[in-house]
Amino acid sequence: MSEPCQRFEKEAIEKLEAGEPLDEHFSTCPDCVKRHAQYRRMLEGLRTLHRGEPRAGWEQRTMEAIASGRRQARPSRRSVLVAGTAGLLAAAALVFLVVRQQPVAGHPTLAAVVHHRGAGQLRGEGVQPGDVIELTADRAGAARAEIRVYRNDSEVVFRCADGSRPSGTEQTCKDRDQRLVGSLVIPSIGVFQPILVTSARQIPEPTWSLKDDSARLIESGAAVTLAPSVRAY
Amino acid sequence: MFVEFRSPGYWNRYSLVVDPSGRDGDAGRSDEEFRRALVAGDFRAAVASLMRRHGTGVYRFCLHLLGDRATAEDVLQLVFVQAFEALPSYEARASALAWLLGIARHRCMDTLKGQRHRLRVVSSDASLPEVPDPAEGGDTTVSQRERQKALRECLEELSSAVRELVYLRFSAELSYDEIAELSGEQAGTLRVRISRALPVLRECLERKGMAA
Question: Would residue A158 be called left, alpha or beta, if left means φ above 0 and alpha means ψ between -120 and 50 degrees?
Answer without folding.
Answer: beta
